[in-house]
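ESCALATION

Customer reports they have been waiting on this structure for their group meeting. Please prioritize. Original submission:
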Amino acid sequence: MKFLRFLALAVTIPTALQGCGKLERNTSLNSRDSGTRPATILAFGGNRSCKPGGDSLPSPLATDMARRLIGMVHLVRSVGRPVEVLTSCFTDPDRVLVSRNLSSTSQDLDFETLVEQSVSSSDENHSLFIIGHSYGGWIAMRTAERIAAQSGKIAGLVTIDPISRRECTYTNWDNCRSAPRDLSQESLETIAANSGNWTNFYQTRTSYLHSSTIVQAHTNTQIDVDHFQIENHETIWRHLDRIMQEF
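Update from on-call: job pushed to the front of the queue and completed.
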């Protein structure tokens, strides 16, 4: 698998919340080597998540998630682990900007092409981590679906309040209050079977726009923040730090 970007993180991690109401011990990358197996991180931002970069133009590196991801990537590389990154953000409901390996140069794609490129850039010799928020969470699931269908292995899948682009549209808000339902039960079970760890984070504070539990996910964690803040929650980044250490 190849490329992705997303993350800068405060890496003081004594404990991380895993599952509803459960606390698990966690150890920072600063205090424990994570291994030398190369990693690929695919990070997908949500609708209109692109923010102006240094040149005042929209950039996938300027999203809140990307800033967290960048910090994590530098930290992982500092302990000698190779990491490839792909980061994307939506500029509108049908277009995304993509940056590879934290490059300031980005590519404009439709989301279907993004899924295809994410799948084709996979590398079986890399530990693959996929993370996505909102529409990006849906893209993360669809990418994982394609990879799992090809018997590819996913070390960690993190969906953050995932919302289906096909079901949740600006003309139909009724379908914006549940986890994506346009993936079959069989597909979801295949994703789970081929993922070392699938954690789904969701919220219900934003009444008109929220996800829900996904039965096939290994863990579902509800966080008491709104849809637009959940991607920054420390629980999520502590969790990602922990699972990266395990693979």
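Sent to customer with the following note: The chain is about 25% helix and 25% strand.
Escalation resolved.
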